[in-house]
Amino acid sequence: MIARNLILSMTLLLGGCDLIDQLMADPKAIQKEADAKAIGSACRHGLRSIEDCYILNDKASKSAIFSGWKEMDQYMRENKIEGVESKVTKAETPGPVAADEQVVSEPGKGKKDTADAKTKGKPKTGDKVEPATH
User: Which domain holds residue 49?
Assistant: First the structure.
């Protein structure tokens, strides 16, 4: 009876060996790999070459990008799906803002000098404050 229970419990424990890797893996690493595969798939559907995809997504894993690109390529060929040409490129990052300048988010406005913004924006004592209209 004990031997039978021992054999049964060993069978159940060893049956789950393939799941141990999945349970012990870091969820953030799994998510990063899934994101990189999705990036590769999107690049293939967007008619981008794999090299362009690598350049545009330099922080993602190249092997996962390739895997996603390859899977999407196979899927598109099997189902005769045409890709959609991508019109977006990697945006240039703006240069750093100087310490004496402030970036204004209003359309049509450029950079303002911080000293001017401080004096123009504050009401003087005794002045009425009117609500801003958009």
Answer: 25-86
Q: What percent of the chain has pLDDT over 90?
A: 33
Residue 113 maps to a domain: no
**Separation between Cα atoms, residue 56 and residue 62, nearest integer Å:** 11
Q: Does residue 57 sit within a domain?
A: yes
Could you read off the pLDDT of 42-63 as tens digits, one per residue?
A: 999 999 988 999 999 999 999 9
List all residues 6 or more positions away from 60 whose beta carbon is below 8 Å from its beta carbon: 32, 35, 36, 39
Number of domain units in the chain: 1
101 strand-pairing partners? 113
pLDDT in tens, 86-118: 776 666 655 555 555 555 555 555 444 444 445
46 in Cβ contact with 14 (< 8 Å): no
119 within domain boundaries? no
Within a domain: 121: no
Give the pairing of strands 101-103 and 111-113.
Answer: antiparallel
Closest CA relative to residue 54, chosen from 67, 87, 73, 26:
67
